[in-house]
Amino acid sequence: MTAKAGGSANHAFHTPLVSRTEALLMLGGAALMLSIAMGVRQSFGLFQTPVVKELGIATADFALAIAVQNLIWGLCGPFAGALVDRYGTRWVSLGGVCLLIAGLGVMWQANGSLMLLLGAGIMIGMSQSATTVGVAGKIAAQVVVPHRRSLAFGIVSAAGSIGTFFIAPLGQIVIGDFGWRTGVLAFMALAVVMLPVVWIGSRVDKLRGMAAPSSSASANQSMSDALGEALGHKGYVVMSLAYFVCGLQLAFLTTHLPSYLELCGQSPMLGAQALATIGLFNVFGSWLFGWLGDLYRKRTLLGLVYLARAVAVTIYFITPVTPISTLVFAAVMGMLWLSVIPLVNGLVLDIFGVKYLTTLMGIAFLSHQVGSFLGAWGGAFVYDMLGSYDRAVQFTVLIGFIAGFSQLLMDDKPTERMVQAKLQPAE
User: Fold this and answer.
1) Domain range spanning residue 88?
2) Is residue 308 part of a domain?
3) 320 CB contacts (<8 Å, ≥6 apart)?
4) Does a structural domain hold residue 6?
5) pLDDT in tens, 215-267
6) Measured between alpha carbons, how far apart are the two ends of the chain, in Å?
7) What's the mean pLDDT when you consider all of the chain?
8) What is the mean predicted confidence (pLDDT) over 383-405?
9) What confidence score (pLDDT) does residue 238 get?
10) Structural domain count, the chain
């Protein structure tokens, strides 16, 4: 793994199109939007046991709602991305926040699996496509100089991870003391905070059409041309398929780890503490891999992340479960959690450029969310059928190793269009 040449360490982090203060405000808005949206989403596993008990539904019914949430998020991702690339981030993201609030409202009123499926599944899934990684990545890519974009993606993801650190324990305390419906109301209050945050982050829309001359190679490229170019790039296809594994691993753990710990005789609070620990260490992991992504080959780093996850899951699930082992496992997984985002975003940028970044990330993320569907619902299906999570864990480990090695070998060469753009003299 060899270091790549980068720009001067003293080069301004932000682009000449915005001031440092404006850049920080926009990045901060993107990070806080991502923080709340992801913090709420990754805490849904805390609701599984109390919701199942009160509504008298099967574990698989709750998991199906979360699985559908992930699948809808993935299916809507390319469309939300296309809207962002064409019209900007503001109204797409504000609509996403409104859907999140409404979806939580339906979940709050749920009296059975159908309302749970509508609110926690379909509506919140749609909201995630307009408020998370794709939109935040687009904002970061537009306000940061090209050779620092991977680091910027990492910083936004790191700041976004703080949401899980605070929201998971807060959610568990409210659920434990006042019930799961009050927990949903607390999440709704957090979602309302996103409205002014999105407004600030979406100020980046004023930069549309003000790109630097180096992006002229994409100026006349149509959406259909970009899609054909992406689907014809073998490395992009391999990366997208490996992203499936990432989604499966994360959704399986966030949905089922709290229940698994209760089956092992551990306190419900340990599940919240584990999710919070993942969020805390993800701050460092996202920043670290974003920084490394500007220095080393992103495909190599991605492959190592997938392999390390598979090893960590193997060790944790074959050893006795204790609070210490759980928190150590959560810390390791946290370092590897959203660290894939700056690397995947950076690869898409390196290969295709910024113009259709959100759309192409959305297509790759669809694969991620199909994996999330299988991780959330499939884990519950395996448990209901076999009375154990063992087979689900074994499958997670196996495909983790497959994804890691395939990612190490992917073709990460930029398209001919991007190569020619770099050869063109600046105007």
Assistant:
1) 24-206+223-421
2) yes
3) none
4) no
5) 445 556 777 888 888 888 999 999 999 999 998 988 888 888 888 898 888 88
6) 34
7) 84
8) 91
9) 92
10) 1
**Is residue 58 in some structural domain?**
yes
CA dist 186 and 102 (Å) reads 13
SS3 298: helix
2 is a domain residue? no
Tokens 């063992």 identify what position? 390
Residue 144, beta-bridge partner list: 14
| CA–CA gap between residue 325 and residue 315 (Å, rounded) | 10
Collect contacts of 92-96 with beta carbons under 8 A, ≥24 apart.
92/130, 92/135, 93/33, 93/130, 93/131, 93/135, 93/198, 93/201, 93/202, 94/195, 94/198, 94/199, 94/202, 95/130, 96/37, 96/126, 96/127, 96/128, 96/129, 96/130, 96/131, 96/135
Q: Is 353 left (phi over 0), alpha (psi -120 to 50) or beta?
A: left
Contacts of 144 (CB under 8 A, 6+ apart): 13, 14, 15, 23, 27, 151, 152
CB burial of 143-152 (b: ≥16 within 10 Å; e: otherwise) equals bbbbebbbbb
CA–CA dist 51, 425 (Å, integer) = 61
Give CA separation, 223 vs 43, 235, 418, in Å. 35, 20, 16
Q: Is the pLDDT of residue 213 over 60?
A: no
> Where residue 266 sits, what CATH number does that domain have?
1.20.1250.20
3-state secondary structure of 34: helix
Can you read off the two tokens belonging to residue 426? 């600046």
Helices and strands per DSSP (H, E), number in the chain: 19, 0
